[in-house]
Amino acid sequence: MASWGRGRFLVTYEPYDLTYAQFRMKFRLVSDPVNGAKCATGPDCTSGFCVEDVCCQSACEGGTCGGGTCTYPSASITCPGDVVAEATRASGAPVSYPAASATGVLPLSVTYSQASGSEFAPGSTSVTARLVDGFGRTASCGFSVTVRDTTAPQLTCPSPVQKADAPPEGVAVDYPAAIAQDSASTPTLSYSQATGTVFPVGTTQVTVTATDGSGNSATCTFPVSVAARVQPPPDEPLPSGGCGCGASSGTSGGSAGED
Questions:
Q1: How far is Cα 228 from Cα 202, in angstroms, rounded to an integer?
Q2: What is the pLDDT at residue 10?
Q3: How many other CB atoms are there within 10 angstroms of residue 169's CB atom?
Q4: What is residue 21's predicted lDDT score, i.e. its pLDDT?
Q5: What span, in angstroms and rounded, lies between the C-alpha atoms of 224 and 204?
Q6: Whole-model pTM over 0.70
Q7: What is the mean pLDDT of the chain?
Q8: CA distances (Å), 201 to each of 55, 192, 194, in order?
Q9: Do 140 and 126 share a structural domain?
């Protein structure tokens, strides 16, 4: 038996037949492993490329070999779902979002119109993700990042207020302002009865409302107590007979008629 080249040409000799004095020889052509044939290593293939156990026309880097032809994954990108975040200051909030998933020929490069972890302004911002694969093919997708303020302000009412010695019609009362804080805006305050106005005798509950720029609100109450002035007791009435200031207790000496 002899062969020339890797699996290219095979010659076989059969034993000499003494009976018939014949010498017989067979030639069998063994074909090359063509593209698409099974292989173990590159040298098993005419092309020299064995890709995933299949002879292929080239190395197919980043792809696969089917029927001897290289196939490559298409360039595609899938964005994360829309993201909603709570505002942490008036300018918005830093927002982190998941990475987009991409396929294509390596290397894959994905860029974003606004980076994850950067500050997003209040409201909705559209983010575009763009893919460029190793063949220069591109794909893109988009999603939104919404920053909103749903947190009510923190509100602290003043301590109870007391006012004494008020006339019957009441008295003007000044009280300290309530304190309101909000992470995303400056709240506005409103009072059920303003400071400096006349409060009636007794206790009045004052309700304070703090409202932020997004319409979130908080309330608290505090009492204003007004005590009436203590009136002095009335004067006692005079006796009905008068004071008796001009009455005489007896006759004065009658000596005028004694001389």
A1: 8
A2: 41
A3: 9
A4: 53
A5: 5
A6: no
A7: 85
A8: 102, 17, 16
A9: yes
Q: What is the DSSP string of the chain?
A: -EEETTTTEEEEEPPPBTTTTB--EEEEEPPP--TTSB-SSGGGSSSSEEETTEEESS--TTSEEETTEEE----EEEPPPPEEEE--BTTBEE---PPPEEESSSSPEEEESS-TTSEE-SEEEEEEEEEE-TTS-EEEEEEEEEEE--PPPEEEPPPPEEEEEE-TT-EE---PPPEEE-SSSPPEEEESS-TTSEEPSEEEEEEEEEE-TTS-EEEEEEEEEEEEPPPPPPPPPPPTT---TT--SS----GGGT-
Counted domains in the chain = 3
User: Where in the sequence is the domain holding 97, given as residue range(s)?
Assistant: 76-148
Q: How far apart are CA 55 and CA 154, in angstroms?
A: 72
Burial of 32 (0-12, 13-18, 19+ CB in 10 A): middle
CB 208 within 8 A of CB 217: no
Same domain, 191 and 213: yes
- Do both 65 and 7 map to the same domain? yes
Instruction: Write out pLDDT tens, residues 112-160.
Output: 999 999 999 999 999 999 999 999 999 999 999 999 999 999 999 999 9
138 and 170 assigned to the same domain: no
- Range name among 35-49, 159-173, 210-224 with the lowest pLDDT average: 35-49
Closest CA to 163 of 231, 232, 229: 229
- Kind of pairing between the strands at 217-228 and 161-166: parallel
Q: Which of 115, 107, 35 is nearest to 70 (CA)?
A: 35
